[in-house]
Amino acid sequence: AKAAAQTPEQKQRVALFELGTWDYMTAGRQRYLEHAKARFGGGGAVLRIPFAAQGVMLADVAKFDPAEALALTPWRSPIAEPTRRELAARFVHDGQYLYVRLEEQGDPARIQCAADVVGGDYWQLLFASQPGAPVHCLLVSTAGKCLLDGQPFDARMEVDALPNACVISLALPLERLTAAPGEPIYLNVIRRSGLSDDQPMWSPSFG
């Protein structure tokens, strides 16, 4: 607007808008982001992933018991705004594998998959062994395709399209996640889409 204003009258109108409206809008937005970051931007809580009560499950995702798993909720946008998508991610381990259950409520027919994964709806798991360490990226689609750091990844996986939800169950070798029982792992989970701007995550990144 400043560049387009040519006459003194136009420049005065732009200046009045900046002082009377724009500055208040940007200041209010900044205060909101500071409040949201103070509330949600701590990098997520330190949580404990439980050991499976039945012991070693040999990567059999059918043995996953959601009742004993750690559930990651709630979910928000990258700047901590509410999301329309109803999501949950659940975790349990058996000392050899990390078992992951990714859930989205709603009609499974809404979910669109793409051959390249990132062109449709998919999940993204980011994990590292410690702050500053290399961050690994796992992409998972409901078509049963996985990419780890951009390369095909043969994970044990099941996809269940229920009447009111789509559920993906995975068994991930702990050694591939640079993790070990009793050791910390830094993790974030994001519901991505090449088709929608509503892409919530468990821990808002503010990036």
Give a brief outline of the structure.
The protein is an alpha+beta fold.
Tally of individual helices? 1
Ends distance: 27 Å
The biggest sheet amounts to: 5 strands, antiparallel
Q: Which percent band covers the strand fraction?
A: 25-35%
Low-confidence stretches: none
Order of helices and strands: HEEEEEEEEEE
Question: Measured on Cα atoms, how large is the radius of gyration?
Answer: 21 Å
Secondary-structure-derived class: alpha+beta
User: How confident is the prediction overall: mean pLDDT?
Assistant: 82
Describe this structure in words.
With 207 residues, the protein is an alpha+beta fold. It is built from 1 helix and 10 strands. The strands form 2 sheets. It has a 5-stranded antiparallel beta sheet, with no helix packed on it. A hairpin with a 4-residue loop joins β5 and β6. The longest helix is centred in the N-terminal third of the chain and has 33 residues. It starts with 7 loop residues before the first helix and ends in a 14-residue tail after the last strand. The model has no long low-confidence stretch (mean pLDDT 82).
Secondary-structure topology with pairs:
Elements: H1 8-40, E1 70-72, E2 87-93, E3 97-105, E4 121-128, E5 136-141, E6 146-148, E7 151-152, E8 156-162, E9 165-173, E10 186-193
Antiparallel strand pairs: 1-2, 2-3, 3-9, 4-5, 4-10, 5-6, 6-7, 8-9
